[in-house]
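Postdoc handover notes: sequence design on the structure in folder B. Input tokens:
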């Protein structure tokens, strides 16, 4: 396996090949994809969110993060996603009181200029087809002094995900091919005039008790590897879990930027 960055042209071709319809995964995401506590705390604290804040999650999926942010801060929260089945899951969440849901894409944020105090994505950067357009839109809809946060995986994180990279090492090259690099994300922000770029990596240790989320392919990269490799990794994971729970680590990189005042 290789961890070298792909040439830009090749990387773009790989990203096009890996486009996925997330309507297919809505049930699995709702059941198995959970909030990463350090990420949530980072969004709330670094985003300086409070009851008068206006917050947009782009690529909100089933809405875990934006629902919890609304509950914790009483901010006015909005979720945007192109997958209608994901939004159906979000809308039917009994805890989603007050969150407003919109169907749409990152390249066009259909909101007035200078609306939001925070715009963020969580594990979505590799699904955004037009990142330059997305960051231009972020710059437009942020209030002066508003913040943007891209919660993503660095190349190091992709190679060290536990248990994904351990039991399904074929996902490493798949994810390196489709995730934008940290340098690319920083360049997109700089191009549109976002300032005060900052990075923070989080680590959330947890115990894995069963392989259901992996068995049901609740992680999109598992749909992109060879079925034989998937089955081999699943059998290995299930065998190790028979000896007891596994200590795992959820890593994320939070990349921050700010609109000048």
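Designed sequence:
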């Amino acid at each position: 396996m290789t961890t070298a960055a792909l040439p830009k042209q090749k990387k773009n071709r790989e990203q096009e090949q890996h486009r996925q319809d997330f309507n297919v995964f809505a049930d699995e995401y709702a059941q198995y994809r959970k909030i990463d506590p350090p990420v949530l705390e980072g969004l709330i604290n670094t985003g300086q969110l409070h009851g008068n804040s206006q917050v947009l999650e782009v690529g909100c999926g089933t809405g875990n993060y934006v629902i919890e942010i609304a509950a914790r801060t009483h901010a006015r929260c909005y979720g945007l996603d192109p997958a209608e089945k994901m939004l159906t899951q979000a809308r039917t969440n009994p805890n989603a009181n007050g969150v407003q849901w919109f169907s749409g894409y990152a390249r066009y944020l259909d909101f007035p200029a200078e609306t939001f105090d925070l715009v963020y994505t969580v594990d979505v950067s590799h699904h955004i087809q037009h990142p330059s357009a997305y960051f231009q839109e972020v710059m437009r809809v942020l209030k002066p002094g508003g913040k943007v946060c891209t919660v993503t995986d660095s190349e190091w994180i992709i190679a060290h995900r536990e248990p994904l990279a351990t039991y399904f090492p074929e996902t490493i090259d798949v994810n390196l091919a489709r995730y934008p690099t940290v340098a690319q994300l920083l360049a997109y922000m700089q191009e549109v005039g976002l300032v005060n770029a900052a990075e923070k990596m989080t680590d959330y240790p947890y115990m894995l008790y069963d392989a259901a989320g992996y068995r049901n392919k609740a992680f999109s990269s598992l749909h992109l590897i060879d079925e034989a490799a998937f089955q081999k990794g699943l059998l290995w994971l299930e065998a190790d879990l028979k000896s007891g729970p596994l200590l795992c680590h959820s890593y994320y990189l939070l990349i921050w930027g700010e609109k000048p005042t």
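Context for whoever picks this up: The longest strand covers residues 195-208. Don't rerun without checking with the PI first.
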